[in-house]
Structures are given as structure tokens and as C-alpha cells.
Amino acid sequence: MSAVREGLPEGRYGRSADERADRKLKIIGSVLGAGLIALIAWFGYAYVIEEDVSGQLTGFKVTAADTVDVRLEITKDQDATAVCTVRALDTYHDEVGRKSFTFGQRQDDLIKVMTVRTTGRATSAELVGCDSATDG
Length: 136
Known about the structure:
Blueprint: H1 17-50, E1 53-64, E2 67-76, E3 82-89, E4 95-103, E5 109-117, E6 124-132
Antiparallel strand pairs: 1-2, 2-5, 3-4, 3-6
């Protein structure tokens, strides 16, 4: 006696509806993923291009109970004036000194050692930020 087949052989007559749906979801996911990566890259590029002043505190040295010398590296446009703020911290991370420095030199890159006066003994220093000075 021979066996009767209930349906068509699998894989012989094209894709099933589930396989077509899976393929559509993969395509949609790929397109959305590529769009998200492009958006992140665009925001990153816009952030870097618009920032015309940047700074980095590369070192500090406590020179006395009421002073700390900080070493700053500033990158800016030649025509820009940079204003960088540094603060000195004590053992408990309380602020014991703060000073803003203005750099108007017609140079792209600057390395400067500046002195911050403190109200107590500093144990560390940090760069709060650097911005472009606005006219007016």
C-alpha cells in the first residue's frame, strides 16, 4: 500500500510566507540601522566642526600651600580668543581655587603654564572648560 502525501514537498515551490516576512524585516532593519549610524556620524561631525576652541589640562604641580601651577594645551583658530577655566581641589574634592585664563595669541596651538591661587592646600586641579570669547 502506498502512502498518500498531504502537502507539497518543502522547498520545491518557492519561499513560504514566513521566509518572505523574515527577509522584509531584515531589509527594514538594515536600512534603519544604516540611517542611525549616519545620524550619529552627522551629529559628531557637526559637534567637532562647530567647536573652534578646545583645551586639555596635561599636568599640575602644587608649588606652595596657596598656589598650584597648571599646564594647559589649547587648540583654537588663529583669530579666536579662548577663555579656559581651571579649578583647584583639596583632599576632600572641595574647590579651593578657581581662575579663568584668556588666550588671544594669534597661534593655533598653545601650551601654557599658569598659576592658580588657592585658599587652602590643593591636591589636584581640573579643567572646567574652554570656550570662545564672544565680542560684545
